[in-house]
Prior knowledge:
By secondary structure, the protein is mainly alpha-helical. 43% of the residues lie in helices and 10% in strands. Helix 2 (49-65) packs antiparallel against helix 3 (69-83) and helix 3 packs across helix 4 (94-123). The radius of gyration is 19 Å and the shape is globular.
Amino acid sequence: MATPAYGSLSFAEQIAFFRQKVNLGTARWDDLLGAAHDRGFVVAGAAKADLLADLRAAVTKAIKQGTTLAEFRKDFDALVARHGWTGWTGEGTAAGRAWRTRIIYETNLRASYAAGRWAQIQQVKAERPYLLYRHNDNVLHPRPLHVAWDGKVIAADDPWWRTHFPPNGWGCQCRVHAVDDAYLRKLGKAGPDPAPDDGTYDYFNKTSGVTLRDIPKGIDPGWDYAPGASLNLQEFIADKAAKLPGTLAQLYLSAMIHGLQAMMREEEP
Length: 269
């Protein structure tokens, strides 16, 4: 089984986040923005319920089984043919298909991964009260501010993370690591860094005529939110476990704990 490029294999909090979403038909990418994505599953231009259901099933498969982008593209081609879906952005050229399928695949996998990580970070804040921002140096076109934020250690409860918790834009591969005071000292820091203030900008969408205001610089329009922060996934998971028979409940909670333990092992930057 291949390990996805967006992170490690799925874990309980990530799966729970994606499972609780509601399918919503949309015409454009900006019909749903920011934290609204915590509750809604959308694919721009996909409005029919059965089409959305199949698109969601393909993404769910990628999340739960760790399938590759190439495998997702095969699933995408099959469901497009089955539903006779036409008019989607990217249709008609190999490059367009490659771009659109990558957007659907990576956006959903990275956002759900980030939401799961957000939930786990809340569980370890007492022991690891800071978050270390890490830029991925392998990206072809690094964003200057993302590079500037690399190495910043900011308090986990700082409001900055509510708008800057990665991914911070289309294709963003930045990550965060929860760290403690000992690691802070290892970095030569006496305390956490102040949250950067890089200003804001407005974005006007010529197609929709909508202006998005006060977007933090360095963040793509619609990405100024922390995936999963508007939810309480711990309560969601506990509530689900409470409705299961005893043995299944224990297995379900064990999966959640296993995900947390895996995150703790991975957290050493």
